[in-house]
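Case 294 in the screening queue. Each case pairs one protein sequence with one candidate compound; here the compound is NAP. For every case the pipeline is the same: read the inputs, emit a complex structure as C-alpha cells, and attach any notable structural observations.

Predict complex for case 294.
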Amino acid sequence: MTILVTGATGTVGRHVIDHLLRQGQKVRALTRNPATANLPEGVEVVAGDLTDPGTLHPAFDDVSAAHLITFGGDYQPLRHGQQIVDLAEKAEVGKITLLGGWQEGTLESAVQASGLEWTFLNPVQFMANFLTDWGEPLRTTGVVREPYGDRKSPPIHESDIGAVAATVLTQDGHAGQAYHLTGPEVLTARQMVRHLAEATGRELRFEELTPDQTRREWGTGGNRPDLSLFRAFTQTPGVSDEDLVEILLQMYGTPHEYGTILTDTVERIIGRPPRTFAQWAVEHAHHFQPHGAA
Ligand SMILES: NC(=O)c1ccc[n+]([C@@H]2O[C@H](COP(=O)([O-])OP(=O)(O)OC[C@H]3O[C@@H](n4cnc5c(N)ncnc54)[C@H](OP(=O)(O)O)[C@@H]3O)[C@@H](O)[C@H]2O)c1
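Case 294 output:
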C-alpha cells in the first residue's frame, strides 16, 4: 500500500520520505511543482495544491496512510480541512499524521472529528531554522549579533520528526495522541553558536545586542536577519518590520516554560534518543563555512 506525504519537498517532508523509504514503504509525494521537486528515485510524485481540494483526488487514490501538513503557502492554516478529510475518508486512509503549525486551522478540527486514526506531531523549533537565521552572518562575519543570548530552547533535529512520523504512520498504538516533540537538551543561543564553532573549527561568536541596538540595527533594515519565517510565525497580517522587531524582542526577552520543557516522546517512539545540536552542527558545518571555502 502507498503512503502519501504532503509537504514532501519541505524541511520535514524530505526526512519523512527518507525514513519511509528506508523501511521499504511505497511513497507518494504531493507537490505543487513536480518539475522542481527533486525527490529520491522510487518516489511517486503527484501534483496537487492543498488550498484547492479539487486538485487532490490523484494524491489520495489508493492510499493507506498519509502525512499531512496543516498549512498552505505562506504558512497560513488550511481553510478546506473538511474537504481534505472527506477525500481521506473516501479513500479509506487509515493512519494520519499532522505536522502542527503555529495556528490551528480547519484541518485539525476536521481530522479530530473524523474516523481517521490521527496523530498530531507538535515539534518545537527545528534545528534547520539556524541555516536561515545564522547561515549568512556566520559565513560572512563569523558573528551572530542578536538580543538575549541566554534565551533557551530545546531544538529538535528535523530528521527525528521525520523518523517519528514514519514510525507513527506504520505502527499501531499512536491514534488520538498529540505528541510534543523536543530535542534532547535545552540550549541557549550562545551555546548553539559554540557548538557551530566546534563543528566548523572557526572562531564563531555570539555578540549580544541590547534591545535598543536591536531596534536600531533591525528596525530599519541594515544588518537585519531574514525575518520572513518569524513574520509567518506571528500570523499577524500586514505587521510592520518595526512591530515585528518589538514582538521578537518581547518573545526573546520573556523566558517561557515552553523553552525549557523536554519530553522523552521521540525516544519512546523511535527507540533511540533524539539527535543533539552538536551532531546537527557537524552534519551541517559546511553551510557555516566562509563563501568559497572547501
Ligand atoms: N520551523 C520551525 O521551527 C517549526 C516549529 C514547529 C512547527 N513548525 C511547522 O512546520 C511547518 C513547516 O514545515 P517545513 O519547514 O517542513 O516546511 P517548508 O520547508 O517550509 O516547506 C513547505 C512545504 O509545504 C508545501 N506546501 C506549501 N503550500 C502548499 C500547498 N498549498 N499545497 C501543497 N503543498 C504545499 C511545499 O510544497 P511545494 O512547494 O513542493 O508545493 C513544501 O513541501 C509549518 O506548519 C510550521 O508551522 C515549524
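Case 294 observations:
- The first strand starts at residue 2 and ends at 5.
- Residues 219 and 245 are 6 Å apart (CA to CA).
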